[in-house]
Specification:
- Helix content is 39%, strand content 21%.
- It is globular, with a radius of gyration of 21 Å.
- The termini are far apart.
- Helix 6 runs antiparallel to helix 7.
- The chain has two domains: 169 residues, Spore Coat Polysaccharide Biosynthesis Protein SpsA, Chain A; 77 residues, no CATH class.
- It is built from eight helices and twelve strands.
- By secondary structure, it is α/β, with parallel strands linked by helices.
- The strands form two sheets. Strands 1, 2, 3, 4, 5, 6, 7, 8, 11 and 12 form a ten-stranded mixed β-sheet that branches. Strands 9-10 form a two-stranded antiparallel ribbon.
């Protein structure tokens, strides 16, 4: 039987973490939690649950998750976020795959990793369209054949070898409400803009005005967000705001700094 280590990174996730832990317990032989110095009950909840808990200052999502991978006891790693939940069909599928019930768990696994579909729970509804439903993510992998990128946001796992696809899904409870969504948009767009600036990416000032309507049309019409009713509309709207805002912040961070407001600058006299 192939053993699995589940990894989760946390920061003040006391409202979400227990739900996530309970969903991975049926498939994980151990749970490794790397916490970014939470000030709430996150760490105590994880320790009471029997997790192996490490605390370190946050230095990027990719780096934090790779730190967790490096402390796992098993080669096969399953990673989920603290605000995600594994569905029962996904639990059953992984147990069957790794227990050998289908003949694969008793020999070398046929893939270096597995893609898992994820849907978003937003405003009381699981979204199936608008780019928020059925997103395929590499969440289960052999750490001897893969690792996380070090991107500060939108990190991913890169594996050497082919990947399989699972049918059971993850459900993402990313946003408590619209206000929470706005807070996260502000954080993620700042991180994305910083990454763009480091890569010397530039945008014309007209681009945010063009980005918003084109992104909204893509999510709401082309990707079918309209089929998810009001939650689909709001998701498409916020996704378009994200695209325009990260571009606007990149433009803001790329321009020369203003001179200090000294008396010389204000009067124009030497």
């Amino acid at each position: 039987m192939v053993r699995i280590s589940a990894i989760i990174i946390t920061f003040n996730e006391e409202k979400n973490i227990l739900r996530a832990l309970e969903s991975v317990r049926p498939v994980a032989d151990e749970i490794v939690v790397v916490d970014s110095m939470s000030s709430d009950r996150t760490v105590s909840i994880c320790r009471d649950f029997g997790c192996r808990v490490f605390q370190r200052e946050f230095d990027g999502y990719g780096a934090q998750k790779q730190f967790a991978v490096d402390r796992a006891s098993n080669d096969w790693v399953l990673w989920i976020d603290a605000d995600e939940v594994m569905t029962v069909p996904l639990q059953q599928e992984i147990r069957s795959l790794f227990s050998g019930e289908n003949g694969e768990g008793t020999k070398a696994m046929p893939f270096a990793g597995y893609l898992i579909p994820r849907s978003l729970h937003f405003l009381g509804k699981i979204l199936r369209h608008g780019g928020a439903g059925g997103e395929m993510l590499l969440r289960l992998f052999d750490r001897t054949k893969g690792s996380f990128t070090t991107a500060p946001v939108h990190e991913e796992v890169i594996v050497s070898g082919s990947t399989g696809i699972l049918k059971g899904e993850l459900v993402h409870y990313s946003y408590r409400d619209i206000s929470h969504h706005v807070e996260k948009l502000n954080t993620y767009t700042s991180l994305a803009a910083e990454e763009y600036v480091k890569k010397h990416k530039r945008f014309p000032k007209i681009w945010p005005a063009l980005k918003f309507p084109t992104a909204f049309f893509t999510f709401y019409i082309l990707k079918g967000g309209i089929l998810d009713g009001y939650p689909g509309f709001m998701w498409s709207f916020m996704a378009a705001v994200y695209g325009a805002l990260k571009v606007a912040k990149t433009i803001e961070r790329s321009r020369p700094a203003f001179p200090s407001a000294t008396a010389e600058n204000l009067t124009g006299q030497p």
